[in-house]
């Protein structure tokens, strides 16, 4: 269900498995409740991942730490980076996806042409063969289903994300790959490769992840060049 990546004084970082609920539902413990039971401590969620998404989650150990992380997330002081796999040729190979989001049918969301309070996503992509591309995504906002909608909007829905038109696969190919932040004047950086997925385990993906091993240090595409 999860792996503990770091156990700090005020928080832990876990690597959630794909297809695991964040919150408890249907009589089954979610990943937060399970971690609390396993570790014997109260944990406070400060951000979340969709069920299909694997990857890094910060869980605070006190309400005070939770309040500070909530402030940091609200102020965009926690840099998050994701990996995704998709089929097809995107409308652009790198750049930005920007637009307001609204609820659609079947618990879906959609991207609008307006930008009053937009979802903002920056990305790179790299061909890994067989018509598939690996994406490195940096969200600059925290909208529901933001990354899933962003890739669908450029014509390349995430593999396994059938809600947004992705082809069936052994998992939903979206992974919270890296976190970079300062907490109480100390710098923290965590980067963890996807824990599952036949395609994530391919040689082509592993080779590209060597180039993307430190996402925070990359020269990300500017908004002007991608417009």
**Span between termini:** 40 Å
Estimate the mean pLDDT confidence. Answer: 94
Q: What structural class do helix, strand and pairing data support?
A: alpha+beta
Specify the CATH homologous superfamily.
Pseudouridine synthase
Oligomer: single chain
The total of beta strands comes to: 12
- C-alpha Rg (nearest Å): 17 Å
Largest sheet: 10 strands, mixed
| Amount of helix | 10-25%
Poorly predicted segments: none
In DSSP terms (H or I, runs of 4 or more residues), the helix count works out at: 5
CATH class identity: Alpha Beta
State which percent range the strand residues make up: 25-35%
User: What is the number of domains?
Assistant: 1
Please outline the helices and strands:
Layout: E1 2-7, E2 11-16, H1 31-39, E3 44-45, E4 54-60, H2 63-74, E5 79-87, E6 95-99, E7 101-103, E8 109-111, E9 119-129, E10 132-139, H3 146-153, E11 174-183, E12 186-191, H4 203-211, H5 223-226
């Amino acid at each position: 269900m999860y792996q503990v990546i770091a156990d700090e004084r005020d928080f832990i970082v876990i690597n959630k498995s794909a297809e695991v609920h964040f919150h408890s539902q249907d009589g089954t413990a979610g990943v937060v409740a399970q971690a609390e039971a396993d570790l014997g401590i109260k944990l406070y969620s400060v951000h979340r991942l969709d069920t299909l998404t694997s990857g890094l989650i910060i869980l605070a150990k006190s309400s005070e730490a939770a309040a500070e992380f909530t402030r940091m997330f609200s102020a965009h002081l926690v840099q998050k980076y994701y990996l995704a796999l998709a089929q097809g040729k995107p409308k652009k190979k790198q750049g930005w996806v920007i637009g307001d989001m609204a609820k659609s049918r079947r618990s879906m969301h959609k991207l609008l042409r307006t930008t009053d309070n937009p979802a903002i996503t920056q990305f790179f992509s790299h061909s890994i063969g067989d018509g598939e591309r690996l994406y490195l995504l940096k969200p600059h906002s925290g909208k529901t289903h933001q990354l899933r909608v962003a890739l669908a909007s450029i014509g390349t829905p995430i593999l396994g994300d059938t809600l947004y038109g992705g082809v069936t696969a052994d998992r939903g190919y979206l992974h919270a790959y890296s976190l970079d932040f300062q907490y109480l004047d100390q710098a923290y950086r965590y980067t963890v490769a996807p824990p599952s997925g036949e395609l994530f385990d391919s040689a082509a993906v592993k080779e590209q992840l060597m180039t993307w091993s430190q996402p925070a240090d990359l020269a990300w595409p500017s908004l002007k060049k991608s417009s």
